[in-house]
Amino acid sequence: MAFKCGAISYAEGALIILLSASMFAAGFAKTIVVGGTENWHFGFNYTNWAFQNSPMYLNDALVFKFEPPNNTTFPHSVYLLRDFRSFLACDLRRAKMVANVTHGGRKGFKFVMKKWQPYYFACGEGGGFHCKTGMMKFAVFPLPRYHF
Ligand SMILES: [Cu+2]
User: The Phytocyanin domain covers which part of the protein (predicted)?
Assistant: First the structure.
């Protein structure tokens, strides 16, 4: 009887450790609003913002907030550029659209950085004009986060 109780409490203990470990890991992943209170708009220096908000980590979520097209704001979007060269040039030719002009409304568009790789984000509107002149681009290399 005493042994059985001991076994149960051991299993329960292991479960609790497992649960708290996953909660611990989830608690560490951050949700970051791109641009902070500036959100995602034309003419804000996002490279600077990314620099000030680094390091960012694997499984951190970036939230892009921008209003869907209306009479008072320009439409925006989110593209992943292919490499550093296309990032520098705001070359959208082989870029991948991850959020269209309507995806940034309400709670915003959420992008989780799951891979250990550089991410080159840019607005794809105006054929690169928002990226180039509007400074709507930034690069992130999410670091692995160690937790024990
Ligand atoms: Cu834009």
Answer: 30-144
